[in-house]
Design a protein that fits this description.
This protein is mostly helical. It has one domain (10-247). The protein has helices spanning 10-15, 18-34, 38-43, 46-49, 51-67, 70-91, 97-118, 124-140, 150-163, 169-182, 184-197, 200-205, 214-226, 230-237, 243-248.
Length: 252
């Protein structure tokens, strides 16, 4: 049986734990808000109405692809492409290719950064493996100009961070929506998580400090995982509304 990502892959290790996926979610939430194409996410009205649900949806689609059988994964990717084309038709414009690419690059960066924060440093071969998986996803979506390997991706990613991100009124509004939907305590947890995984360019634009207080908490959380008490910790700090989605992120 052929899978889009074979079971031994480190990508399955990364996306098979809710902890890592939530850090990916946190980082993407920050960078989404700064992207110059964020107005596309506002066009349908779904993002400001339910920013967490919109981001969970993006993460959920990614996870389905990464654990699906090969042909099923291709169908999911094609359905995502069709959904975006529908939005383009309604607006009468095309979503810029660089905007699609930026989202793909977010998934690559935060997959690596989140795993390294929570687990261990990835080897060069593992980073190349992560990149290759998302390269295949992007190629299926018809994205142009994707670097052919991880090493060539690094300077392109840095260039895009410098040129495709800005702090705008929509950025500020989106963070206000995060605070509204999460509540003050969970919002602060989100910010602390973002500090740990976002690139320096994102951190500067959002005026985030370099040190995260979660760094102090992290060893105790890792201990709670060993004691199988991490579920209780997550239930205390994560929104109840998304309890089922978060639980479903863990794949044995």
């Amino acid at each position: 049986m052929k899978y889009f990502v074979e079971p031994p892959s480190v990508v399955r290790q990364i996306w098979g734990k809710s902890d890592t996926v939530l850090f990916i979610f946190a980082g993407a939430a920050a960078e989404f808000a700064l992207n110059k194409a964020v107005d596309w996410l506002y066009f349908t009205g779904r993002l400001p109405a339910d920013p967490l649900g919109r981001l969970f949806s993006t993460v959920s689609y990614s996870k389905k692809i990464l654990f699906a059988q090969y042909e099923d994964a291709l169908r999911i990717i094609d359905s995502i492409t069709a959904i975006h084309q529908g939005v383009e038709n309604k607006r009468g414009q095309q979503i810029p290719d660089w905007a699609y690419r930026d989202v793909l690059f977010m998934l690559i960066h935060y997959s690596i950064a989140s795993f390294e924060v929570l687990e261990r440093p990835l080897s060069s071969a593992e980073k190349h493996e992560v990149y290759n998986v998302f390269y295949r996803l992007g190629t299926r979506m018809g994205l142009q100009g994707l670097p052919d390997n991880y090493d060539n991706w690094i300077p392109v990613r840095q260039f895009d961070l410098e040129h495709d991100l800005t702090s705008s009124a929509l950025s500020l509004d989106l963070f206000q929506q995060y605070k509204k939907h999460l509540g003050l305590f969970r919002y602060r947890v989100l910010l602390e998580g973002q500090i740990m995984v976002v690139p320096s360019r994102v951190r500067r634009l959002l005026h985030l400090r370099k040190f995260s207080f979660l760094t102090v908490f992290l060893p105790f959380y890792k201990l709670s995982r060993l004691l199988r008490m991490d579920g209780l910790v997550k239930s205390l700090i994560l929104p109840r509304k998304y309890k089922a989605e978060i639980k479903a992120m863990d794949i044995a």
